[in-house]
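Researcher: We're teaching a course module on how sequence relates to structure. For the next exercise, students receive a sequence and then see the predicted structure as tokens, so they can try to spot secondary structure elements on their own. Here is the exercise chain.
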Amino acid sequence: MDDLTEKRKSGMIFCGKGLRKEEPYLLKLMICDDESVICESIQRMLERFSEECGIGLDIKICRSGEELLEQMTPDFDILFLDIRMGKISGMDAARKIREKYSDVCMIFVTTMTQYALEGYKVHAFGFLKKPLTYAQLRLQMLDAVHMLKSRRSESIMVKSGNDSWRLDLNKLYYMEIYGHDIHAVCADQTLTCYGSLSEYEKLLEEKGFCRCHKSYLVNLRYIRQIGATQIFMTDGSVIPVSKYRKKELSEAFARCIGGNI
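Model: And here is the predicted structure for the students to work with:
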């Protein structure tokens, strides 16, 4: 067994300075194509990209739309997929995935460029035409990495159930204590998260969030009005404000409006 095969079987991660268990900047990728030779070709190109650019890649492979839907989790960053596959086409799988995971970067690798319009309906990041060259993949990956780095600066990872979710702070209205959990109320969903509100307060205090009540942490950008005892949010929510925290909240809100946050 060669060294590369051994590394693949061990489940280790490819990165620019050799293989290691942890990498400060790591991307998780899925390749889905019903042709093994295509999957392996894309994987080799991605490993080369990782070595050249010093970006850690955790690469998984599946060979059908059904397998993709079974293995897909919210922590995948980039998905390479073919369109023409078996019972579930790549486009059908993409539609189902997009219903659950709004942030994954989808890149179609296909001969069927006539489906480009359909691809943009599922917010495809790009199309790569077969036969794929390394130069094409490298350019697409550089664009994707740039986009993902920008997005990550405005997101945090939260634990919800058995999954880890990337929470887009631009969509987060507020967080509230709900029993023993935290509810993260977003524009497109409400997540039940683990941890304490104090931990999230420390994490988000420099990102435009403020603790307005012992049970609430609000996104200052979504405050419509601060009343005597309540905050009126742009989504219609009404949140209590503690008299002990109102001065700090009002000052933070003023800085936000003034563009200092």
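Model: If you want an answer key for the exercise: DSSP finds eight helices and 15 strands in the chain. The helical segments are 3-10, 36-53, 65-71, 90-100, 116-121, 134-152, 197-204, 246-257.
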